[in-house]
Amino acid sequence: MKIKRQKQAKKSITFYKYNFRFREPFLILLDGTFCQAALKNKIQLKEQMPKYLMGDVQLCTTNCVLKELETLGNQLYGAKIILQRFQVRRCSHFKNPVPASECLLSMLEDTNPQHYFVATQDPTVTDGLKKIPGVPLLYIVLNTIVLDKPSQASLDHVRAVQLGELVTPAQQQSIRSLKEEQGIGRKDGERRGKKRKRKQSNPNPLSCLKKKKKKGLPTPPLRKAEPGERRKSRHKRRKKGDNMAAAAVINT
């Protein structure tokens, strides 16, 4: 059973790496319910989580989760002690804390840009996570950490990208960087780089051809010599053979 669970986890991690660009160290966002279940089942999160996910991890939580555990009192005191050892990620509710479930969902936004794994036992959070594509879900079942299969929203998102109906965040970033390099989408004064010099082009080969005489047009009349103007005479130069033949005829 353990080997089968490990193979399923590896398959899901590969899916998120390939389609949603998850990289190590994996960011694991935990709430109080998950830590309470880990404490109850004697699971050492810092030791077992990297082994199960087969990579480096960084465990973290939010200020709202800690505030909620404080209000619950001694009932979840052990979970609070565990969470205080992890990194506290900054959320937008620092001054006005909100319930932990609402805070976790807000950290993921619409596309999970920070690539969080979410570890929770709260069904309210679980239902909300399955509607967001690209969110790996961790929970504890029978003294074991389990990585859930990719949700239907994640599968539909990947299928739409493969069909060319959607553009991934990585592709959007690449398109944005290419536009900035080419100066597209900016004002004329904000364009980067110098203006490109135009290359000197060769003349049009058709314009270099000699003009052809148009057929059917009347030839212009010869110019008459004006009085007093000496007209040039054109003497045809005879060949040497022709001159000798003419002299022979005269002698006879």
TrEMBL record:
The keyword rRNA processing applies. Its main location: nucleus. GO terms for cellular component: small-subunit processome. GO terms for biological process: rRNA processing. Residues 177-191 have a biased composition (Basic and acidic residues). InterPro entries: Fcf1/UTP23, PIN-like_dom_sf, UTP23_sensor. Residues 194-213 form the UTP23 sensor motif region domain. Residues 231-240 have a biased composition (Basic residues). Gene3D superfamilies: 5'-nuclease (3.40.50.1010). Keywords: Nucleus, Ribosome biogenesis, rRNA processing. Residues 174-252 are annotated as: Disordered. It is found in: Nucleus, Nucleolus. Belongs to the UTP23/FCF1 family. UTP23 subfamily. Involved in rRNA-processing and ribosome biogenesis. This is rRNA-processing protein UTP23 homolog. It comes from Austrofundulus limnaeus.
